[in-house]
Amino acid sequence: MSRSGIVAFAFGVPASLPSNRRISEITTRLARELNAIVYTQQDVELDSRIEVFRISEAPGQPPPSLRIARRAVNWAARWKLGELWIVAARPHLIRCLRDVQFAVIEAGISIQVHPCTDCLNCPETDWFCPDSEQSRTRSRKTWERRERLLRLMPFWLYQKIAG
Hints:
By secondary structure, the chain is α/β, with parallel strands linked by helices.
């Protein structure tokens, strides 16, 4: 049986937001179930008994999803992981999956990528918060406007701005 890893994407800043607390809870539970190691961001706080690797971040400048995906796939290759579970806010999950799957293909390695479906069962009120330091995660309307552009632009352009 191959070893599992989890890539957890924060949704907004700071860690105390309901969205990041929910992502932290789901990631902690899944890591325990799978005996998995985790790659994540600073605003996802996990149980100290879970082995966690974090992407480096400049204060106030969380990395783009594609950069997280690429670094996570490189990390997974170093640890010889056979599968990656993606934990992200429901509105962010499709793009996170796409970015991780792209990074796997780009790296030329064989890793299965799975969405964590627990993220789909959370109410929308867990995701959007007016207290977020990132304006794009304060409301669905603001998020959708930005997300629509990111999903529809040609991928070569997305790579330039998000990679």
